[in-house]
Amino acid sequence: MSLHESHHSESPPKLEKEKREEKSRGEKPREKDREKSDESCQEKEPQLDETRRRAQESAGQREPFQRDSQERQKRIESYQQQCIPRRLRKSKKVPLSRLMTLSGSVRQFEKEHAGEQIFPERGPFLVIANHSGGETWKLLALLRRFDTHIAAAQELNFGRSPLRRALLNKLRMLPVVESLANLHEKEKQELLERVPGTKRKESYRAVMEREASLGAAFANAQFLQESVALLSRGDVLVMFPEGPFLYDGKTSLRKGYGGVETIAHAFQRLTGETLKIVPVGISKAEKGRVRVGRAFTFTEKPADEEKPTDWMMRQLAVQLPEQERGFYTDSLRPA
């Protein structure tokens, strides 16, 4: 048998055996590798699932929040477009407000509080102040770095003359329907006798007649909408909760009218945020001395029977000397 024949005759069994051995040797590592790989996947899959689940949950939580936030912002922008008067569409500071710093009480206040942050760093916020004579110009000067809007009586100020209306519009003020509902009939008649000038007297009489026919709770929807829209833009609103000037020479604080809390609630419904209220007391007895209190919100009001307006007015009263606290002298207690 030749070597060649011998090779062919013996090779098949060897080849088969070697193949079986190689196959056996080769398969076992691969089986082990597959088992290890499967075990490794079984260990990682729960981690991947958990990671994926958390990511999905997080995305699910963010998406509604982002969606709600975007929808709210759209509602705010739509509200602003509908309710902000055309003359106030562009946000800017009140003209000539820097010239108003020539007031001695304003210079004194800013000198005493130099370097201090008296008002919130930015709007929106609502300022409540008392009547003292010249308070409008002092407040415009103190708030000159904000886009500020002072609530002015619709009949008694805006309706007095075209020239006066043009000036108030230029100063970016808002007309508000005034009220004399806190006065008794006798007090109203005495007021008419004190009011100077025929035109001005007619304006006060028109307010009394309107409330007599429509009731004291006359709706002020337009002012409410304009105020909330401007505040939602980041502006500042100034209100005098005592109501119109009464020409009686008294300097003490009067019982406040409602309305500020209504604006605060409407603002929160629109924006989801609480509205800051800043009390500013201007003392006539102390030659126009200005005191600015801590900003507060109606959420800080204790759960008692006191009306929100009276609670708010007490925050204003403590900014005045005791002899000027008037209606709120005996009801003061820490806020």
What does this structure look like?
- The protein has 335 residues and is α/β, with parallel strands linked by helices.
- The chain folds into two domains: 15-83; 89-179 and 215-328, no CATH class.
- The protein is 52% helix and 9% strand.
- It has helices spanning 3-83, 104-112, 135-142, 154-158, 162-170, 185-194, 198-214, 221-232, 260-271, 308-317, and strands at 125-129, 148-153, 174-176, 236-239, 276-283, 289-292.
- Strands 3-2-4-1-5-6 form a six-stranded mixed β-sheet, with helices on both faces.
- A hairpin with a 5-residue loop joins strand 5 and strand 6.
- Helix 1 packs across helix 8 and helix 8 (221-232) crosses helix 9 (260-271).
- The longest helix is centred in the N-terminal third of the chain and has 81 residues, at 3-83.
Give the gist of this structure.
With 335 residues, the protein is of the alpha/beta class. The chain has helices at residues 3-83, 104-112, 135-142, 154-158, 162-170, 185-194, 198-214, 221-232, 260-271, 308-317; strands at residues 125-129, 148-153, 174-176, 236-239, 276-283, 289-292. The protein is built from ten helices and six strands, in the order ααβαβααβαααβαββα.
